[in-house]
Every structure is written in structure tokens, then in C-alpha cells.
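Lab meeting, item 3. Inverse folding demo.
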């Protein structure tokens, strides 16, 4: 095992591997952008063919893999390790949750998502966690770093972890009705009456705590990389927030089209907040420029 880890570390330290990883990110993103509009239309109109039910899981794996390779390009060994730990920890939490009812509540996965690890947790679910955590961290850093300066990975402020976990939870608020009642990825069997589409409150508490832990793992490994004098590659820094927005857009459109108005409204409000955070500073700079040219 030590020898295998050494070989893996050597491979990721090899600069000649970097162009191949970059091309992999571009290729995975191109495939995702090709599939994305068809996925929205087919799910929104309830026109997914029976033979195509596997595509939802494949899309989650694709996006999770995209985030994993992107992390590896940005942070090399540390990014790959972060991706691997997020996959393993999220699978373990989901396996415990699906078999014991703790911490999310009593639920079970249907046979829609295949394959399933040990017949319990679909392979797509850990990849979904990888996508959501990396994307939420990207959104949090964009919100908290309004001056546009590069993020200092040597620092691990609690606000960054808390904000990332909160954005992951907000995404789950729009995901749950979509996954349970539209795509039927899992069903809730808890005796507890859920206040939100029959989903127990424990699910959202556990989602936030799990997201908090996984966000901390990612940021802690990035800090370790910085302390080892590893400078992140400047490569597609916009990608995690972009994937957060494309997924949020899908959930808003599909929930609205299928009559689930509340999660669509919540998702729409999140989109407005993110759009305002991007637009207002640029508008302020434009107005300042006009004022300076016209004293």
C-alpha cells in the first residue's frame, strides 16, 4: 500500500501529467454542457425514457469526477487526497444513514440509481457530495472575497467553512423534493412527520453538519498544501460556482415545471442573491467611473 501511494504521489508530482489533467477537465465539462440542456428539458417535461433512467446517476458521477480532477489540477496531491476523502467520508455517512436511520432520518435508496455500493448506497451519491461540497466552497469564497484578491489558503477562517456548509444546505433544500418526488432516488420511511414535503428536520441538520465536516476537510488540506509551499494552479477558478449555479437552475426549472413551487422559489432567491453579489460591485465600479469622468 505504501508503495502504491508513493507511485501515486510521484505521478501527481510529475509536471508532464498536468496538461493531460487539464484536457480531462475540459473534456468532462464539454460532455456535461452537451448533456445539461437535454436533461433539464426531459426531466421538466417528464419525458425521460425508461431506458434512460440511468443517465441521472451518470450525470452526478460526471460532475463529481469533474470536480475531483479539477481539484487535482489546482492542488495536485492535496487536491486528489481531498477528493478521495470526501468520497469515502460521504459514502460512510450515507451507508450508516441508510442502514440505521442516523443521522438523517429513516430513508432508503430506490433502484433508480445504479450501481449501488454493497447494495445500499448508489455510487452516484458520494460523487454528488463531492460536487456539492467543492461547488459550495467556491460560492462561499466568492461571496466572502469581494475585493477579488486571491484566496489565502494558509488561513482557515470559520466563516468560510460555515458559509460553505450553509450554501450546501441551501442546495439540498431544492434537491430533496426533486430527488424524492420527481426522480425518486430515495424514499423517506421515518415515522416523524416532516415539516417540508414530508422530509424530517433531522435530514437538514445532518446535511449541514456533514457539509461542515467535508468543507473543513477540503479547506484544511488546501491549507496544508499552502504550508508545504504549493501554489495552486490558476485554472478555471469560476468552475465550482458555475456548477453550483447550473445545478441550482436545473432544480428551480424542474421543480417549477412539476408543480413544486416552494423549492423553486427558494432556489430562485438564492440565484438572485448570487446574481446581486456578482452584479452590484461591478455596477458600483461603473458608477464611480462615470462620476470620475464627469465631475
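The presenter then showed the designed sequence:
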Amino acid at each position: 500500500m505504501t508503495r502504491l501511494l508513493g507511485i501515486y504521489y510521484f505521478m501527481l508530482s510529475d509536471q508532464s501529467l498536468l496538461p493531460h489533467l487539464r484536457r480531462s477537465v475540459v473534456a468532462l465539462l464539454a460532455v456535461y454542457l452537451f448533456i445539461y440542456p437535454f436533461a433539464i428539458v426531459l426531466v421538466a417535461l417528464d419525458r425521460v425514457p425508461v431506458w434512460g433512467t440511468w443517465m441521472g446517476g451518470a450525470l452526478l458521477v460526471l460532475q463529481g469526477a469533474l470536480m475531483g480532477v479539477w481539484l487535482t489540477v489546482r492542488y495536485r496531491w492535496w487536491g486528489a487526497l481531498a477528493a478521495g476523502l470526501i468520497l469515502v467520508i460521504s459514502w460512510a455517512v450515507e451507508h450508516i444513514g441508510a442502514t440505521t436511520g442516523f443521522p438523517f432520518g429513516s430513508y432508503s435508496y430506490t433502484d433508480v440509481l445504479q450501481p449501488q455500493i454493497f447494495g445500499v448506497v448508489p455510487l452516484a451519491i458520494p460523487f454528488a457530495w463531492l460536487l456539492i461540497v467543492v461547488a459550495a466552497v467556491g460560492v462561499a469564497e466568492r461571496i466572502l472575497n469581494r475585493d477579488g484578491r486571491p484566496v489565502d489558503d494558509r488561513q482557515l477562517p470559520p466563516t468560510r467553512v460555515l458559509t460553505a456548509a450553509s450554501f450546501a444546505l441551501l442546495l439540498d433544500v431544492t434537491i430533496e423534493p426533486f430527488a424524492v418526488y420527481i426522480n425518486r432516488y430515495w424514499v423517506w420511511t421515518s415515522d416523524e412527520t416532516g415539516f417540508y414535503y414530508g422530509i424530517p428536520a433531522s435530514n437538514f441538520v445532518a446535511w449541514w453538519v456533514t457539509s461542515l465536516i467535508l468543507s473543513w476537510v477540503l479547506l484544511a488540506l488546501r491549507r496544508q498544501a499552502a504550508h508545504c509551499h504549493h501554489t495552486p494552479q490558476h485554472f478555471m477558478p469560476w468552475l465550482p460556482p458555475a456548477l453550483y449555479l447550473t445545478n441550482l437552475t436545473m432544480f428551480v426549472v424542474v421543480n417549477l415545471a412539476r408543480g413544486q413551487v416552494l423549492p423553486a422559489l427558494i432556489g430562485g432567491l438564492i440565484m438572485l442573491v448570487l446574481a446581486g453579489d456578482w452584479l452590484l460591485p461591478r455596477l458600483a465600479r461603473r458608477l464611480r467611473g462615470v462620476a470620475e469622468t464627469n465631475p
